[in-house]
Amino acid sequence: MTDLYSRRNFLWTAGAAAGAVMLKGCAINPPSPADLSPKAQALSLNPSQIPETTTVKLGYIAIVESAPLIIAQEKGFFARHGMTNVQVSKQASWGAARDNIEIGSDGGGIDGGQWQMPMPHLISEGLITKGNRKIPMVTLAQLCTHGNGIAISNKHIGKGFGLDLAKSGAADYIRDLKKAGTPFKAAYTFPRVNQDFWIRYWLSAGGVNPDQDLDLLAVPASQTVANMRTGTMDGFSTGDPWPYRIVRDKIGFLAVLNAQVWKDHPEEYFAMREDWMRKHPRATKAVLKAIMEAQQWCDDPKNRDEMVRILAQRKYFNVPTTFLRAPYDGKYAMGDQFQEISDSSIATKYWKDSTGSVSYPYKSHDLWFLTESVRWGFLPQAFLGEADRVINNVNGEQFWKEAAQELGVASADIPKNSSRGVEKFFDGAEFDPTKPKAYLDSLRIKNIKA
Ligand code: CA
Predict the structure, then answer these.
(1) How far is the CA of 257 from the centre of ligand 1 (A)?
(2) How many CB atoms sit inside 10 A of residue 69's CB?
(3) Ligand 1 centroid – CA 297 distance (Å)
(4) What beta strand segments (E) does 52-197 contain?
């Protein structure tokens, strides 16, 4: 029995011999293979891996992070693992995704899907749910790295917006706008998660205090872009195809890619409700294996044209294929001179990056997101003392390892450590996951709250 089983106090797999799934001490009978659809039965699945259900509903947001979910559906990877009735459901917004996981598929919502971080932790702790209800969730895989950037409205051309705001003078320019009573306004799509962290990190590394020197706010993507077009919004922190699209539509320019700020950074994750996993441990692993297969498929250069054609469809991203193709080669027009860069190492990756695994859900990355939440006062300082407990409840690395083994992933591609080690940022800052407080102490601009 692994630590995870005992920690969660439930059996992940009861084993073929037991013939039952133990659920908090109660035995329930899993469906026999005869209950599965003929299509699922036709699959040559190991009997111990036949899922308890063929049905699950997963949410996604139409940005590149969701590709593994869409590809697992479109290329038949879910079905191959016996999940023949997966609904991959486009979410209108991150708030809608949160609302839908709260009600679950029984209530017309979703059982899991794509999340910015640390949404699974905040939902599990009841910090962003209605009535502060705790809905335990488990992160099962990181979906991708890179593919995110910060777009600036064309009205700020010539002001030095780039990677280093201090050196270029753009930091002074932002502060001057505030003094003049016309503060720079920048948007992200949901507060206190990835895109909020990305713009805050970049601004503060350049000496701009994101809580004092400008207005940062949550605005839906389409509204942000419309407002950038009219000049009433100045910046947007978001994922492809939005940054690339803003440049192609001549609305603005890309100041920075997050790949430049933090190479091989953690991005969005696949996570599910723990109660659904408890009821369907084998189905959970089937879903996870299909997503891992899709991640491998997405990273194969020979599949990228087909992937772009699939994602661009009206029912998914609904964009011209050209908005997606170039970023997948690491091609962007950067800065207010629209300088072409072409660097495949900064392209969106789903399975492997220069550090090794993209898909593996490292606990050290969970800790960075929670530490950064403390940095900006989104969580109280005392939360750092709670971080290990929360991470151990939410992180599903053990499930990832089991799924990888069943899938036949080479052992060299299965990380041995829960930590990826010390993380390095473009400005010289370092995050040592064994010393989160030292990281916070090293940062000049922060808003830590007791
Ligand atoms: Ca993102």
Answers:
(1) 11
(2) 26
(3) 20
(4) 55-60, 85-90, 112-115, 137-142, 148-153, 185-188
Q: What share of the chain is helix, strand, coil (3-state, %, to 5)?
A: 45, 15, 40
State the distance from the centre of ligand 1 to the C-alpha of 28, rounded, in angstroms: 39
How many whole angstroms from 232 Cα to the centroid of ligand 1? 23
Rounded to the nearest angstrom, the distance between the alpha carbon of 243 and the centre of ligand 1 is: 11
CB neighbours of residue 382 within 10 Å: 10
Residues 6+ apart with CB under 8 A from 408: none
Per-residue pLDDT of the chain in tens (450 residues, 90 and over written 9): 344 434 444 434 433 333 333 333 333 344 444 444 444 444 568 888 999 999 999 999 999 999 999 999 999 999 999 999 999 999 999 999 999 999 999 999 999 999 999 999 999 999 999 999 999 999 999 999 999 999 999 999 999 999 999 999 999 999 999 999 999 999 999 999 999 999 999 999 999 999 999 999 999 988 999 999 999 999 999 999 999 899 999 999 999 999 999 999 999 999 999 999 999 999 999 999 999 999 999 999 999 999 999 999 999 999 999 999 999 999 999 999 999 999 999 999 999 999 999 999 999 999 999 999 999 999 999 999 999 999 999 999 999 999 999 999 999 999 999 999 999 999 999 999 999 999 999 999 999 999
Cα–ligand 1 centroid distance for 116 (angstroms) = 6
* pTM score: 0.91
